[in-house]
UniProtKB/TrEMBL annotation:
Entry's free-text remark on domains: Consists of three domains, a large central CORE domain and two small peripheral domains, NMPbind and LID, which undergo movements during catalysis. The LID domain closes over the site of phosphoryl transfer upon ATP binding. Assembling and dissambling the active center during each catalytic cycle provides an effective means to prevent ATP hydrolysis.
Location(s) in or outside the cell: Cytoplasm
Region listing for NMP, in residue ranges: 30-59
Protein name, UniProt field: Adenylate kinase
Family in the record: Belongs to the adenylate kinase family.
Gene3D superfamilies: P-loop containing nucleotide triphosphate hydrolases
Origin superkingdom: Bacteria
Pathway(s) annotated for this protein in UniProt: Purine metabolism; AMP biosynthesis via salvage pathway; AMP from ADP: step 1/1
Keywords: ATP-binding, Cytoplasm, Kinase, Nucleotide biosynthesis, Nucleotide-binding, Transferase
Reactions mediated catalytically: AMP + ATP = 2 ADP
GO cellular component: cytoplasm
Gene: adk
Amino acid sequence: MNIILLGPPGAGKGTQAKRLEQLYGLKQISTGDMLRAEVAAGTPIGQEAKAIMARGEFLPDPIMVKMIQGRIAQPDCSQGFILDGFPRTESQAEALDAMLGTDGLKIDAVILLDVAEDQLVERIASRTAEDGTRRPDDNPDVVRSRLDIYRRQTAPILPYYEKAGRLKRVDGMLDVDEVGAEIDAILGKTIKN
């Protein structure tokens, strides 16, 4: 089972990804973590990526897709994977679909944790007040800035999956367990198809 988990920062993607890893044996793949690992390991892709990033440029789609292809071929992805942070553009989504197709794979579910942005900012602020810890990105202004970046960089991919009938929306403002139950219901339906 291969999943793309979408949603703005603070929507609960990380929490749900951890739950899905434990429940289904999937492996969460963060493209940022993967990229840092490739650079640190000094792989050919990592060296190429490091040079591109040093120039302040974004990595071309073929490099990102090649890194993902190599990562999902690892044994810990044998039960499937959860993509986090990729794709962000329609061309990346198309390249991902093409690459998976050549390997006989596909994305089984594209799940959007849909949230009301104002409520999300309040939820993050109250979370900080409840547990007494504050992460640097829990500041309401930082949260709003990250939401703006999400709207510009990631949200544009939603129509690609919507047009294909692949996007499933979950109310990310529900309780964590309720969100999990909705995701499980989607995956149960997806597995049977």
